[in-house]
Amino acid sequence: MKIAVCLRRVPDTTAKIVIAGSGTVIDETGVKFVPNPYDEYAIEAALSLKEKAGGGETVVVALGGDAVQETMRTALAMGIDRGVHLHGTPSPDGLENARVLAEHLRGAGYDVMLFGKFAVDDCGQQTGAMVAELLELPCATAVTKLDIAAGRATVEREVEGGIEQAACALPAVFTCDKGLNNPRLPSLKGIMAAKKKPLEVTPVAPGAGSVTVAALALPPERAAGRIVGEGAAAVPALMQLLTTEAKVI
Amino acid sequence: MANVLAVLEVRNAVLRKGAAELLAAARRIADASGGTVDALICSVGPVSGSDGLGAAGADRVLTAQHAVFANYCPDGMAATVATLTNAYRAVVVAATATGKDLAPRIAARIGAPCAMDVTVVDSRGESIRVVRPVYAGKALQTVDLAGTAVVAVRPGAYAAVPAGKAGTPAVVTVPAFTKRLDVTGIRTSDKAALDVAEARVVISGGRGLGDPKHFALLEELAAAFGGEAAVGASRAVVDAGWAEHGAQVGQTGKTVSPELYIAVGISGAIQHLAGMRTAKVIVAINRDKDAPIFKIADYGIVGDLFEVVPALTAAVRVAKAH
Ligand SMILES: Cc1cc2nc3c(=O)[nH]c(=O)nc-3n(C[C@H](O)[C@H](O)[C@H](O)COP(=O)(O)OP(=O)(O)OC[C@H]3O[C@@H](n4cnc5c(N)ncnc54)[C@H](O)[C@@H]3O)c2cc1C
Ligand SMILES: Nc1ncnc2c1ncn2[C@@H]1O[C@H](COP(=O)(O)O)[C@@H](O)[C@H]1O
């Protein structure tokens, strides 16, 4: 089984967000970058699918500048066999990035193409499904369960008020949600081995697309709240505020 | 003129809630330029709940009927929408699990940009301008989308507005398409009748509850609100197996924007706040007066939840009885 994992380098989720002088991007000074957390579920799924199939190849594909190679090495250290670095600057238009990724994945013989449910930086939540459409392949998004047998996949995904079940033939695209698995940590041996794994670099140029970032701003601070009181004795005062001031009851 | 197509969500021949809110967002784009709003329903047959769509803002109600729409069929819906989009400047869907699955498929098919979880929509010259949270809610991005745009509007971002439009019915043909993904059904969990992402009131419990059985306290408070409240949870208790993942609020769970959010025994970690900071009113109940949740709560009660929650439940019952 040949499996691709698309990986994005993102700021650590605990990073404090500071807006750069341009007013449209974040200031990256001092920010720690990590593999997108949802892509770690995709990596783990790729590794376990290959293990279950008893063979095959896992490939990590990342679009970005020089720095993504460090992130790709994490995937290689977790056990992915090799990397393809699509060297270029991602577009603010997710469709342009999807086009670049689809162009590389097309005709490369992948049975399964895995993505994260979303990237925690731009929260685009679109790349995987777009790649599938461009490749005219089946796609299930935000899967929390993925079983593959006899060239078919059955999946589960969370929807409002329940779990949706679906099936499709391979090759197919899946985007991975929390709950799918528990990503393994890179072992020391894995980290050493990763240094020697093949990492091919291909220059790409995503188009400008149709999205222009006009502004990036911190969310308005919520007005400082107030402590209504202590213990059950404060409940009547709270009720008064909720009914007459906030008018939500 | 920005004409807008609002793709509505149907489950089991019933229109999902949120249609009127989505139409309000659609009107916001259309009205700025004298455009019209069409609602699209993909279903097998008649759909209950669809009679009020004109009043909620639809100039026309398009129906595309096909046996394949017995379950959600993303391939069929995306193919149908793609045959229509020449007439529209924007396609809007609700940013639910289903809407967010559908939106990028439509966008890729028609070569349009896609913006998810949008909280503000506007038409601006030849572009659609939207605001959406990025960095897990730690920043807000304003983007201009040129050409036809696909926009998923976050539930709760717009309130329904009576619009008194005609809602003229029209039939749309489902084109030939390949069904690549076969959705076989939805297993509804017995508890989650109302989803945290859709409820007007969300009451979430954290590690402070001490034991999974104490969620019963929150269920009772939710019941006192009479069917408009859902029970959520912090990740700490979901990871501990006290609550289902579908109930998790936060960065790796659901983002909710209810009118009232009550955090019970939740400390207020940044990843939790990412999921609920856009609630209209936040109430926190915590015995630690320095808990970070109090920094963003509109109203806080410092105290033992085992004492405060039952008192609140009783008070809500009384208020609701009036
Ligand atoms: C990558 C990442 C993603 C994450 N995503 C999420 C997410 O989506 N959602 C989320 O919630 N968390 C998330 N977290 C976890 C988050 O950092 C916190 O660990 C978690 O939110 C803490 O849950 P809690 O508030 O229930 O527990 P605690 O932090 O342990 O807080 C319990 C609170 O209960 C109070 N308490 C105890 N007993 C009582 C009592 N009798 N009466 C009243 N109050 C009482 C305490 O004072 C305390 O404030 C994420 C973390 C990471 C690293
Ligand atoms: N620059 C990129 N390189 C490789 N994969 C990416 C890139 N951007 C996004 N992806 C993949 O697409 C998923 C969803 O990203 P997004 O649509 O931006 O939220 C991510 O979790 C990755 O799997």
What attributes does this structure have?
A: about 250 residues; alpha/beta; nine-stranded mixed beta sheet; 13 strands; B: about 325 residues; Rossmann fold; 2 domains; five-stranded parallel beta sheet; 18 strands; about 30% strand; elongated; binds flavin-adenine dinucleotide; binds adenosine monophosphate
Question: Could you describe the 3D structure shown?
Answer:
The complex is a heterodimer of chains A (249) and B (322). Chain A has 249 residues and is of the alpha/beta class. Chain A has helices at 37-53, 68-78, 94-105, 127-135, 188-194, 235-245, and strands spanning 2-6, 9-11, 33-35, 57-64, 82-87, 112-116, 139-149, 152-159, 162-169, 172-176, 199-203, 211-217, 226-230. Chain A has a single domain (2-203), classed as Rossmann fold. In chain A, strand 4 (57-64), helix 2 (68-78) and strand 5 form a beta-alpha-beta unit. In chain A, helix 2 crosses helix 5 (188-194). The radius of gyration of chain A is 22 Å and the shape is globular. Chain B has 322 residues and is an alpha/beta fold. Chain B is 25% helix and 29% strand. In chain B, the strands form four sheets. A seven-stranded parallel beta sheet of chain B has the order 7-11-6-1-4-5-12, sandwiched between helices. In chain B, strands 15-14-16-17-18 form a five-stranded parallel beta sheet. A three-stranded antiparallel beta sheet of chain B has the order 8-9-10. The longest helix of chain B is centred in the last third of the chain and has 17 residues, at 305-321. Chain B is elongated. Chains A and B meet through helix 3, helix 4, strand 7, strand 8 and strand 9 of A and helix 3, strand 7, strand 9, strand 10 and strand 13 of B. The complex binds flavin-adenine dinucleotide and adenosine monophosphate (AMP). Residues 206-208, 234-237, 248-253, 265-267, 269, 271-272, 275, 286-288, 291, 304-306 of chain B line the site of flavin-adenine dinucleotide.
